[in-house]
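Email to the structure team, subject: Helix-turn-helix protein model.

Hi all, the expression group asked for a predicted structure before they design truncation constructs. Nothing fancy, just the tokens so they can compare against earlier work. One-line instruction: predict Helix-turn-helix protein, return tokens.
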Amino acid sequence: MERHLSGSPEGDRSVGAELRRYRRTKHVTGQQLGRLAGMSQAKVSRIENGVTAADPVDVEKLARALELTEAQITRLVELATQARNHMVDWRTTRVGMATRQLDIAQVEGAGHQIRVFNPVSVIGLLQTSEYARAVMFASRRMMDVGAGDPPPADIYEAVTARLQRHQILAYPDKSFFFVMAEAALSNRLCSPTEMVGQIQRIRELARQDNITVGIIPADAQLSGPLVHGFEVVDDRWLLIDLFNTLVMSRGRSDIRNYLDLFEGLQEESTLHIDAMLDKYLNHYLDLARP
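Reply from the structure team: attached below.
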């Protein structure tokens, strides 16, 4: 069953509602409209209900199939374009950490090429359960300053949801491009023993045919500051990971800018990561010794 993303722009739903209103006024069924516009009835339904992003091209096809006026078509297309350029703020305190993981999983599940950058910690899809638990625990404490330790059940649910996202790594029809700064290895977010397991997991996953892992060395000459993490799914979704929120955009200009940024970060990274992983593996093994 398809879920509404908790952060879906209102614009998608208003465009869909407008199309549905015009369709009903003209006494056309969803199946008839789909046939006229060259798309399935299921897709028409998803657009009308705001489940699928209202792509301006699809909106124009549907509007012309309904024989709307040029002014009506132009207005609907502009509304759909504005919705795609809209950024939506997903706050942990509002939707919950586990729900956010499920929303991200839905976006990733619909994509084929997934690009992720993180300047300070191991990328979520590469994390072990122990590392993920430490990250979730620390993030939740920073979100709720003064509230004490977060409930263990909340952390367990969020970690479980994140680990469920990892299943997508086994899909051969999907390609993953991960870039991290070396600081992701040197920043110790869990025990030395758990960091050893995390580094071993990075090495293991980097050997998969559909996964590329690049690391930007600490002494690399950077073209700019490494400000925040982000994820780009195909050329349709942008997720920006900030301190206290996750921001989503489907704006074409936003996505194009971040694809260019990711390409630059890839050029500054190295794919020859074994020596760097060995360096930190030995470091944490030394720390783990009694």
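Residues 10-84 form a domain with the 434 Repressor (Amino-terminal Domain) fold (CATH 1.10.260.40). Confidence is low (pLDDT under 50) at residues 1-12, 90-94. Ping us if the truncation boundaries need rechecking.
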